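Hypothesis: this fold can be encoded by more than one sequence.
Test: take the structure tokens below, design a sequence, compare later.
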């Protein structure tokens, strides 16, 4: 019994340790290049699911894509796409696309290298198709062909230019089409149902290239409008009239008459003319006063002698008057 107990005790640690080792091996992360996957695929409904068998290590990513095509006499043209990426945190992704109601092909692939159009009738993706030989994903082959009627979209593109240098492209799909029309503009996909239209603004100083699902390419740029351009000045803004007032307006007084000015300095009236300066009139001086020659010495002596006689006569006259008043 002792030997049996010892054997059981010795064996117990091995059993306990084996479980963690097995669990860690199953959860060990892997790089994207060595990872394997499992997927489900339903081409008729346009759905796929992809899961990593082991989690990807931090920083590792793996992308997957799903595409549906319209299938007609000219080949296959992109109808709808979806992309998703598995990471260390997102171990499962789901993809979903719209499937056209006519002949179609739907394919799920590893990576993001989708083709916009395919001229052959077969699957162009080979081993990149999930579930195909050489694929790292386990599951049914993710390629579907269905529908019984050729897809017949009727896309049109018309360019219209404006006089300001801008132009637009009008995209439309005729009402008689049996499927939505697809338009590829700079790598972006636009889809229009039968009878619908939309406009796209073109780049200034550049061209706009549009590829449609009838395998036709339209290239447009600004062109002078057929009707020509007439540039008219913008109308002047209307001025608001001054509000009416209840007070009577003042009557302007007549201007005071301007003082007469010499004819020689008269000037014609001019708006905003500068003020003029008129000098005061000059008074005439008598000619006798204007010339005052200097006195000679003889004239000066005669004047002095005359003054002396006048003074002496005055003195004598005073003496006579006094003698008459006082006879004694």
């Amino acid at each position: 019994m002792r030997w049996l107990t010892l054997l059981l005790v010795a064996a117990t640690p091995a059993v306990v340790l084996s479980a963690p080792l097995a669990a860690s091996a199953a959860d060990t992360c892997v790089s994207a290049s060595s990872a394997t996957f499992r997927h489900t695929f339903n081409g008729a409904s346009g759905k796929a699911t992809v899961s990593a068998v082991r989690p990807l290590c931090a920083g590792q990513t793996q992308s997957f894509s799903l595409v549906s095509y319209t299938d007609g006499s000219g080949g296959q043209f992109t109808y709808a796409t979806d992309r998703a990426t598995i990471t260390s945190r997102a171990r499962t992704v789901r993809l979903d696309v719209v499937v056209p109601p006519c002949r179609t092909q739907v394919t799920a692939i590893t990576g993001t290298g989708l083709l916009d159009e395919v001229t052959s009738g077969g699957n162009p993706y080979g081993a990149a198709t999930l579930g195909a030989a050489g694929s790292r994903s386990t599951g049914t082959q993710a390629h579907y062909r269905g529908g019984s009627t050729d897809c017949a979209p009727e896309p049109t593109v018309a360019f219209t230019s404006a006089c300001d240098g801008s132009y637009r492209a009008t995209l439309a799909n005729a009402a008689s089409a049996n499927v939505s029309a697809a338009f590829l503009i700079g790598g972006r996909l636009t889809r229009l149902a039968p009878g619908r239209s939309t406009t796209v603004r073109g780049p200034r100083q550049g061209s706009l290239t549009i590829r449609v699902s009838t395998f036709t390419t339209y290239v447009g740029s600004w062109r002078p409008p057929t009707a020509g351009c007439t540039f008219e000045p913008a109308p002047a803004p209307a001025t608001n009239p001054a509000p009416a007032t209840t007070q009577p307006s003042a009557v302007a007084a007549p201007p005071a008459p301007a003082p007469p000015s010499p004819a020689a300095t008269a000037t014609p009236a001019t708006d905003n003319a500068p003020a003029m300066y008129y000098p005061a009139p000059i008074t005439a001086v008598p000619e006798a006063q204007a010339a005052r020659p200097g006195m000679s010495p003889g004239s000066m002596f005669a004047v002095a002698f005359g003054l002396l006689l006048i003074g002496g006569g005055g003195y004598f006259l005073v003496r006579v008057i006094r003698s008459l008043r006082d006879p004694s």
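Confidence is low (pLDDT under 50) at residues 3-9, 11-23, 241-254, 259-293. The helical segments are 2-27, 287-290, 297-325.
Hypothesis status: open.
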